[in-house]
Amino acid sequence: MLELSESNIHLNANAADKQQAIEMAASALVQADNVENGYLQGMLAREQHSSTFLGNGIAIPHGTLDTRSMVKKTGVQVFQFPQGIEWGEGNIAYVVIGIAARSDEHLSLLRQLTHVLSDEDTAAKLAKITDIAEFRAILMGETIEPFAIPTANISLDVDTQSLLTLVAINAGQLQVQSAVENRFISEVINNAALPLGKGLWVTDSVVGNVKNALTFSRAKTIFSHNGKAVKGVITVAAVSDQINPTLARLLDDDVQTTLLNGNSTEILTALLGSSSDVETQSVEGAVVGTFTIRNEHGLHARPSANLVNEVKKFTSKITVQNLTRESEVISAKSLMKIVALGVTQGHRLRFVAEGEDAKQAIEALSKAIADGLGENVSAVPPSEPDTIEIMGEQIHAPAVSEDHNLPANAIEAVFVVKNEHGLHARPSAVLVNEVKKYNASVAVQNLDRNSQLVSAKSLMKIVALGVVKGTRLRFVATGDEAQQAIDGIGAVIESGLGE
C-alpha cells in the first residue's frame, strides 16, 4: 500500500494546462528524491499514449515502462487544482496525483481510490477542501475523529487573582493531553493574553501545536489585569480547520455569556454546538427548506426514488438531514443514503441547496413533498409548518458578494498583512472584533489566492482564507459606518493585530 504524508499534498495549486500540471507533479517527485530528472518525459509520453484521467475529477499521471529505471523509490505527489485542469475529451481534473512506482505498486493506490471514484460528492469535496489533514483522510478512505473537548478541560471557580495562573492551568492541561509541546507552554506563559471582552481572554501559540484542543479556566471572582476585567481564559491549540467552528463560537455573545456563568455541561454544549449548528455555519447564503413528510409509509424505495429524481433536475449541491432522528447530513442525490435515513410519516427533513438554482430546487422539493412524492398523503396537516429561508441574507444592509453585484456606495481598500505567521487564531479574532464594532457590512478577499469575498465578521472564514505574511487583503464595506470600518481595519492591521 502506498503511503501518503501531508508533506506530499499541495492544496490550492494553479496551472495553465495539463502539461504544466504534470510538470509540477514531476518536479515535486524529483525534489522528494523519488525520481531522476528525466522522469517527466516518461509521464508526458504516457499521457500521449493514453489519458490518465480516472473520473470524478482525478488524474494519475505516471511514467512509462521505459522510465521505471529512473524511479529511485516509490512515492506520490498530490496537487489540488480548485479551478480545474482540462484533461482532454471534456474531462476536468481537480486532483492530480503524480506517481513514481518501480513496479505495479500504483495499482494499490487505485484500489485505495475506489471510494472516491464511486462517490461524486466525495470527489467534489476534495476539489475545494482547505485542510490538508482532512484532505488526506478523505483521499485515503480514513476517518477523522470529530473535534471534542473533554470535561477535564473546563476548570471552574479557580481561587486566584492572577491571569497567569489561569493561563498556566490551561497550558498544563493541554500538555497532559499531549496536545502541545514545551515550546507552546513557553509561548503562552511569556506572551500577553488577548482580551476578548466581558472579562474573557484568549491565548494561543504559533509553535508547539500537536493536535486540536481547547481548555478553559474561570476564576471564582472577577479581578483586574492592567486595568481590564478578568474572569476566564481560553487557551487554543490548533493544527487543522476542524477547530474553526468552535473558534467562531467564541465571538458569539450567547457563548461568551455561558462561559462566564454556565456550568461545565452548558459550556461544552455552547463551545461544540450541535451537528446542525455546524452545518448552518457552512451554508451561509444557501437556501434551506424544512419540510414534514406526509406519506403514510414514510420514505421507502418508491417515494425516495422520486425525491432523488426531483433533486437531480437541479445543478445545485443539495444535502438533507433527518431532524427528527438527528441524523448526519447526507447528499440528497443518493437513493441509498435517502432510504437509510429511516424517514417515517411526520419526520422533519432539512434540505440545504447551494448553487445558481438553489431557490428553484427547494421550492420544487417543497411542492413534491407536499404532493406525496408520487403517493397519497395524510389529510392531517403537520404539527409544524414547512419553511423556506435564505441563510445569512442581509436585511438592513446590502449584501456584498461578487464584484459585479457590489453596491455603488461600497468603499474598498487593500491592506498587506505584516504578521510573521499570518492570520492564525489570535490575530484573526482581533480582526473580527474590530469589524464588529461598526454598523457596516464588511467582506474580505485574499487577492493573492483570488478567493471569493467572504464575511469579515466570520472568524471561521477569515482563518480559512489561508493568509500568510505579505498577503494582500481587499476589504469592501457598505453601510452607515463603512468608511469608519475601513479606517479601523487599516489601523488594526498596521498595528499588528495584537502581535
UniProtKB/TrEMBL annotation:
Classification via Gene3D superfamilies: HPr-like, Mannitol-specific EII, Chain A
Presence of keyword Cell cycle: no
Ranges of residues in domain PTS EIIA type-2: 2-142
CDD domains in UniProt: PTS-HPr_like (cd00367), PTS_IIA_fru (cd00211)
Domain of life: Bacteria
Entry keyword set: Cytoplasm, Kinase, Phosphoprotein, Phosphotransferase system, Sugar transport, Transferase, Transport
Subcellular location: Cytoplasm
Major subcellular location class: cytoplasm
InterPro entries reported for this sequence: FruB (IPR016258), HPr-like (IPR000032), HPr-like_sf (IPR035895), PTrfase/Anion_transptr (IPR016152), PTS_EIIA_type-2_dom (IPR002178), PTS_HPr_His_P_site (IPR001020), PTS_HPr_Ser_P_site (IPR002114), Sugar_PTS (IPR050893)
Record gene name: fruB
An MF annotation (GO) of this entry: kinase activity
GO BP terms: phosphoenolpyruvate-dependent sugar phosphotransferase system
Domain named HPr: residues: 286-376, 410-499
GO CC annotation terms, alphabetical: cytoplasm; plasma membrane
Function according to Swiss-Prot or TrEMBL: The phosphoenolpyruvate-dependent sugar phosphotransferase system (sugar PTS), a major carbohydrate active transport system, catalyzes the phosphorylation of incoming sugar substrates concomitantly with their translocation across the cell membrane. The enzyme II FruAB PTS system is involved in fructose transport.
Organism ancestry: Bacteria, Pseudomonadati, Pseudomonadota, Gammaproteobacteria, Pasteurellales
Name of the molecule in the record: Multiphosphoryl transfer protein
